[in-house]
Write a structure and sequence with these properties.
The complex is a heterodimer of chains A (440) and B (189). Chain A has 440 residues and is mainly alpha-helical. Chain A has 20 helices and no strands. Classes of the chains: A mainly alpha (440), B alpha+beta (189).
Chain lengths: 440, 189
């Protein structure tokens, strides 16, 4: 019965050139900070750390695309006031395309399969004889550096069988396909949503709903395979079909956290007055809470299905993150910390509705989840730095610089996307419903 | 009933959700605590209009959930160890596919612990809700009211109960009049 929540139309108007200048500044500074981080790290470490940050921010942009499509698909009313912000993060896919360039140019340095891939290809025809002979045919590359002959043969075997998929040319084609799918979808959603701000036709909303329904499978497949290609293939001998789902869950958590943080600080600055209410913070908090549980559910599913059958070729991924070859702790501390900071503590802290309905505590938990999500990506990606052997974690200031620098670019891109548009879809047919909705 | 007839409260009928919403606000602002609203469908914001406190159900569920988790942990670890915590004699140590038992094998027991947590939480939620609502309730004094049958169709009723500390017939009738209530009746138990 709280009808009559009015939008302060001045505070949702396009912010204009001042955001443009700020965005350019942030992007330039961000690029400088990334270079600073790079210059402080060893080449391999810098590239791996860059990939970690890239996958983290990409997950947020993809979370934005998924969120926008999901809201149209389910004809959701509550979320209209924050949808434009999500669209701002969604359009950052274009920024991520540019940020992918260093990875694209250094595939052979980042991915172990590309390092010795050419050799695997050369020996592919003679693979049968290679195995029958039991000789190590891949005489160069990283495999050669392992002492364990059995492991050498295993990795060789895997590479020979996967070389048609894990091959630089095909890998690059797939990169193109993934970005094509995401960019086409993101621009379609963006253009229609912005166009509706001027003409206000309800048919546009219906159209976006229909396209979302059809596009969802393409989104799901492209996200899954992108996570396979760019993250899972770092350890090319290991495989997990639920890997993409975990990546998706992380992305959705990241997006919700970004929505909460951006709404909070925009409102502090006088934007979005009367648009985003306690009810919306409560809902975004609930969504984040739900996906924290979902993340834990799928992560644990992956873990228990590998732990229980106890098959060496699968368990090695967790073993690499549990025990270092020289018996030192290695990544074990991280493996214990990640479930605690990514699930157990946020689960307990976010359970109460009072935490979610208080804008400040809700925002603090959102920042927490972003940090936790980054550390989770770090834990997934960095142990493969010297694959097939494992090095101890060397988390340092350079990693922080690369992550923060890319964050500045990401945030700059977000401001740049929104500088010429209303901060709320002002003529969306469900806007009134969103402004006046209440939780029980 | 041989007992002396006890007064349950005073009830009045309203025509629309809006009217009864404002009537509830009137009684809340007048300081009444023990009054009930009977409507054919849930009305948004009625909790607030009546000044109801938040339900304690979440705490009941939390307590049940923690109990369930504890039971799950104890059950799975005790039954798979020779000597459990504090030197207590355990169940039967069975090594299955070479996995560690008891607390070292807690990973395999997480699904079990999860299930017992969920089971007791769900019991807490369902039976706690039923208990807090005073269900099952086969008789209610308002059933004696002539037009109360309309409550499942188009009648909106507000009843001030006699155990409210502010209970005062004249005052209540005055408030009902002010709020636009019709058909004011006293109900006996």
């Amino acid at each position: 019965m709280a009808h009559g929540n009015k939008l302060d139309s001045e505070s949702v108007k396009a912010p204009g050139a001042k955001w443009g200048g700020l965005a350019i500044g942030l992007i330039v500074v961000g690029a400088g900070v990334i270079f600073g981080g790079f210059s402080m790290s060893k080449t391999g470490h810098g590239l791996h750390s860059y990939l970690t940050s890239f996958m983290f921010y990409l997950s947020i942009a993809l979370g934005g695309l998924f969120f926008v499509m999901l809201q149209h698909l389910t004809r959701a009313g509550w979320s209209v006031v924050v949808r434009r912000l999500a669209e701002g993060f969604m359009k950052n896919i274009l920024v991520m395309l540019v940020l992918f360039a260093p990875i694209f140019m250094n595939i052979d340095k980042i991915y172990a399969w590309a390092d010795s891939g050419s050799h695997a290809e050369a020996h592919a025809e003679s693979s049968d004889t290679a195995h029958a002979g039991g000789e190590a045919h891949l005489t160069t590359g990283r495999i050669d550096s392992i002492d364990d002959v059995k492991l050498q043969h295993h990795l060789e075997h895997v590479l020979i069988h996967k070389h048609k998929y894990l091959e630089a040319g095909f890998f690059k084609i797939r990169v193109g396909i993934y970005f094509l799918v995401w960019i086409v979808l993101a621009l379609f959603m963006w253009k229609n949503s912005v166009a509706q701000d001027s003409h206000g036709e309800a048919a546009t909303t219906i159209k976006m709903g229909k396209v979302s329904a059809g596009a969802m499978p393409f989104f799901a497949l492209s996200l899954t395979f992108a996570s396979f290609d760019w993250m899972m293939s770092l350890d090319y001998a290991w495989f997990s079909t639920i890997f993409g789902v975990i990546y998706f869950a992380s992305g959705f958590i990241g997006l919700m956290a970004c929505l909460i943080i951006s709404s909070f600080f925009l409102q502090k600055r006088g934007y979005l007055k009367g648009a985003v209410t306690t009810e919306h913070y409560h809902d975004m908090g609930k969504f984040m809470f739900a996906f924290i549980i979902f993340w834990a559910y799928v992560s644990f599913s992956q873990f228990i299905l590998i732990r229980y059958p106890n098959i060496p070729e699968e368990t090695i991924w967790y073993l690499h993150r549990w025990q270092h070859e020289d018996g030192s702790l290695g990544w074990k501390n991280w493996s214990i910390a990640i479930p605690v900071i990514h699930f157990i503590l946020p689960f307990i802290l976010l359970m109460s509705r009072h935490v979610k309905r208080n804008k400040v505590t809700c925002m603090i938990m959102a920042v927490w989840m972003l940090v936790a999500s980054y550390l989770h990506f770090y834990w997934v990606i960095m142990p493969t730095l010297t694959f097939p052997s494992v090095t101890n974690p060397a988390f340092g200031f350079n990693d922080v610089l690369i992550a923060v620098g890319m964050g500045l670019i990401f945030f700059g891109g977000f401001l740049f996307n929104l500088k010429n548009v209303n901060l709320v879809p002002v003529k969306d047919p469900r806007l009134d419903e969103s402004l006046n909705f209440t939780n029980y | 009933m041989a007992k002396e007839e006890k007064i349950h409260g005073i009830v009045s009928e309203f025509k629309t959700p809006k009217e009864i919403y404002h009537a509830a606000e009137t009684f809340r602002d007048a300081g009444f605590k023990k009054f009930e609203v009977y409507t054919p469908f849930p009305i948004h914001g009625m909790d607030e209009a009546m000044g109801l406190k938040a339900t304690i159900l979440p705490w009941i569920i939390l307590a049940c959930g923690i109990t369930g988790m504890t039971i799950g942990i104890c059950l799975s670890t005790w039954s798979s160890s020779e000597t459990w915590l504090f030197g207590i004699e355990g169940g039967y140590k069975m090594i299955i596919s070479g996995k560690p038992d008891s607390f070292e094998g807690i990973y395999e027991f997480i699904p079990v612990i999860f299930e017992t947590t969920i089971l007791l939480s769900a019991f807490g939620a369902v039976f706690g809700m039923i208990g807090l609502n005073g269900l099952p309730k086969l008789y209610h004094p308002l059933f004696t009211h002539d037009s109360f049958a309309k409550v499942s169709d188009d009648g909106f009723f507000l009843c001030v109960e006699s155990d409210d500390p502010l209970y005062n017939e004249a005052k209540i009738k005055e408030l009902f009049e002010k709020a636009g209530g019709e058909n004011v009746n006293q109900i006996t138990e």
